[in-house]
Specification:
The chain is mainly alpha-helical. 75% of the residues lie in helices and 4% in strands. It has a 3-stranded antiparallel beta sheet. A hairpin with a 3-residue loop joins β1 and β2.
């Protein structure tokens, strides 16, 4: 007989291993989500407000009014935090209480998240490949007139941003930083893919094992 925290008793080693993995993955996911939003709350810049201001350009004051208030950032961030914790909580509670519905939600959501992150990784790779051809293509006069809009709000002492060539040279000079940022994003995305695929796989296996209700006995059912 194998004992485990939360007064759970297992009669199958595989059940214990899967439960341990799902609990650990859920705990790590919850910790990462909380850390992300702690950084969001403590940041001096109100990213949401800046985003909406750039999108609406002060045309819709009502749409961004809540984000101009001190509670706006806390309200929106808190709602996002609660929603983000839903999947880790499903995994934790499902593994702890042998709830197949929660485990199913945990596995399916991670499977969908893994697929979306795979698409994100492909998109990042395409962007990195595309950046390589931008300079060559845009060197042709008049081929990328839209890049002047990208330099409209920038300032530089090294490049004449009011000219086509100067703006292009300025943007090209930023490519190494862009590649570094995209590389970091790609690495983090790959880690997310591995994490979510592992969560989906082990969650699915635990879901299947839980079909046999006698494999794991909670404290409420066995009097421990």
């Amino acid at each position: 007989m194998v004992y485990y925290p939360f007064n759970m008793v297992f009669v199958n080693a595989r059940m214990k291993t899967l439960t341990h993995r799902v609990l650990c993955l859920s705990g790590i996911a919850a910790a990462l989500v909380i850390a992300k939003y702690v950084i969001f709350f403590l940041s001096e810049r109100n990213v949401l407000e800046e985003f909406h201001e750039s999108q609406y350009a002060q045309e819709d004051k009502v749409a961004i009014s809540i984000l101009e208030k001190p509670y706006g950032k806390v309200l929106v961030g808190s709602l996002a935090l609660i929603l983000s914790l839903t999947v880790p909580c499903c995994g934790f509670l499902g593994a702890k209480s042998n709830n197949r519905s929660c485990i199913c939600c945990f596995a399916c959501c991670n499977c969908c998240g893994g697929c979306l992150h795979i698409l994100q990784a492909i998109l990042i790779i395409l962007i990195m490949v595309g950046l390589g051809g931008v300079e060559t293509y845009c060197r042709q006069p008049g081929s990328c007139e839209g890049i002047m809009n990208a330099c409209k709000y920038h300032k530089s002492d090294l490049y004449a941003l009011d000219t086509y060539e100067g703006c292009l040279d300025y943007l090209v000079s930023m490519f190494p930083s862009a590649y570094a940022g995209l590389g970091i994003a790609l690495g983090l995305t790959c880690l997310a893919i591995c994490f979510q695929c592992a969560s989906a796989r082990w969650g699915k296996e635990l879901y299947d094992v839980l079909a046999y209700e006698d494999l794991c006995l909670g404290s409420d059912s066995d009097g421990v």
